[in-house]
Amino acid sequence: MRCNGCSYPLWNITARQCPECGKGFNPGEYEFTPGLVQFCCPACNQVYYGTDARGQMLPPEFACAGCGQPMSAAAAVVRIKPGVRESETTLRELPWIERSRLGFWRGWWETFKLSITSPRVMMRRTPPQSSWVSAAWYSLLSILMFMAPQVITVVVIFLIAAAAFAGGRVRGGMSLAFAGGTGLFVLLVAGSMLASLLLWIVAAHATLRLTGAVHGSMRRTAHALCYSTGANFIVAVPLLGLYLSTFASIYWLALAAVMLIEAQRVQWWRAVLAAVILPVLLGLGVLGVAMAGLSAATTAATAQAAQGLNTARFLTLGTTVMVEHAQQGAWPAHALDLRLVAGGAMVQNLVLEDDDVLLPGVTAGEMMSLGADAQRARIDAFTASLPARVLAVRVGRVVTVYHGIEGRTPQAGLWLLLRIDEEGVEIVSAPGPRTRVSLDQFERALGAQNGARAAAGLPPLPESVIDLKPGEHIAWPTESELADDAGVTPERPD
Which residues neighbour 104 within 8 Å (Cβ) at sequence distance 6 or greater? Predict the structure, then answer.
């Protein structure tokens, strides 16, 4: 019987504090080999022997037969039975700690069996001052051993599949690469498990300290969590281990809580909270990241789908404009001056959202809510407000720049329509292909386009063409302006 704080022997001591470090102790909390320890009455020195499974007295409390005073293990002076060595008075230590005497694998096997059948006894047999590094080594080794059947199964399946596809032969390089990858995976898992285990120990002990007093140091908490690893034997079932890992985790947490109760002498709720606090927080963190990723993916997919729909609408608008030009022999006055726009059929092709401004004071949604006659009245009024000749007109997000292009078949490469958004400009060119440029690239693309326009006898488009607001236009330059300087950008009217 030794002090849990400094390992000082506590035999023959009447006081309930360790003479060496002053830490309190209770002989009733120790386990002894039955019949080898004497419990002596502090008043009359009457001797009693511990005969129950823990080497304690039965009953635990009674009146002393010698003096009639209350007698219990908590108050007794404990001595070693004459002729008995101290090492014989306590149950033997944990097999893993005695593996140098028992043999490595026998020490592991006996410890594993004890952990899943008698976790409280296991903690009693673990000396408080024993190495936590040794406990962590046991934990890591156990995890690797439980993973081994799964890894071996995957390797065998791979080799069989590879041999089947290779006509019964597997190339050595392929096998070596797969084996190396598998080994690297195992090392990564082992490293992450060790890091997680250390973090778990710190979090569990901090939780115990925050919720009350503890009986031992963080080393004792490490003993409980590391030696409870045996619960993961369930994952060793080939092929099914991954599906059984949830049950293994629950069993592991339960064993860890039981061992914490014994190791730190705490209430069950404190032990359970300490055991599950980090796994729960990590689980919530992983779930949060997964949900955030799913939300981001959904948002991106929705945005991509919307962009695809808007692009399709824009191309439809371009096709409709070109068809009407071919049939009528003239370009529409603007992108709303289409016969099909009646009833709102073309309105959505001019905007990205229903609340986008279509014309000054009118959104796309408001325009679509009007009847065909009211829509046509609005459109005709806007058309009448434009000058006789324009260079560009914006309606919604679409700017028409086909004004002045002659012939029923426009010269290939000339821009017809621009759609402007916050990130760039989409362009429909004759005879109908679509291109997209960023706002930073637009100036260069415009320079190339103005070269093509000059070759076709058209005035250049100014850079301000993408700054137009819905309902605004740029007037066609006068002959004098063109004669003065063909490169001068036409001024935008107020």
Answer: none
**Strands of 434-438's sheet in order across:** 434-438, 424-429, 415-420, 398-400, 390-395, 473-475
Q: How far apart are CA 66 and CA 47, in angstroms?
A: 9
User: What are the angstrom distances between the C-alpha of 433 and each of 113, 318, 423?
Assistant: 74, 9, 20
Within a 10 A sphere around the Cβ of 426, how many other Cβ atoms?
A: 21
Name the band, by pLDDT with cuts 50, 70 and 90, for residue 491.
Answer: very low
Question: Please, are residues 364 and 351 in contact by the beta-carbon 8 Å criterion?
Answer: yes
Name residue, tokens 């302006």.
481
pLDDT at 488 over 50: no
- Per the CB < 8 A criterion, the answer to whether 375 and 392 are in contact is no
Burial of 7 (0-12, 13-18, 19+ CB in 10 A): middle
pTM for the model:
0.48
Per DSSP, the residues of 293-327 read HHHHHHHHHHHHHHHHHHHHHHHHHHHHHHHHHHH
What is the residue-averaged pLDDT of the chain? 84
- Cβ–Cβ contacts within 10 Å for residue 317, how many? 25
Q: Which of 61, 66, 27 is nearest to 43 (CA)?
A: 66
pLDDT in tens, 293-330: 777 766 666 666 666 777 788 888 888 888 888 888 88
Residues 250 and 437: their CA atoms lie apart, in Å, by 55
Beta bridge partners of 49: 38
Q: For strands 362-363 and 357-359, give the pairing.
A: antiparallel
As a whole number of angstroms, the distance between CA 201 and CA 190 comes to 16
| Amino acid type, 169 | R
Whether 390 has a pLDDT exceeding 60, the answer reads yes
Size of the chain, expressed as the number of residues it contains: 494
Tell me the sheet residues that pair with 475.
390
Sorted by sequence, the CB contacts under 8 Å of residue 209 that are 6+ apart come out as none
- Alpha carbon separation from 368 to 319, 394, 396 (Å, rounded): 21, 18, 13
CB of 9 within 8 A of CB of 39?
no
Q: What phi and psi, each to the nearest 5 degrees, are found at residue 475?
A: -75, 150
Give the residue among 299, 297, 294, 260 at the shortest CA–CA distance from 276: 260
- Residue 212, sorted as left (phi over 0), alpha (psi -120 to 50) or beta, turns out to be left
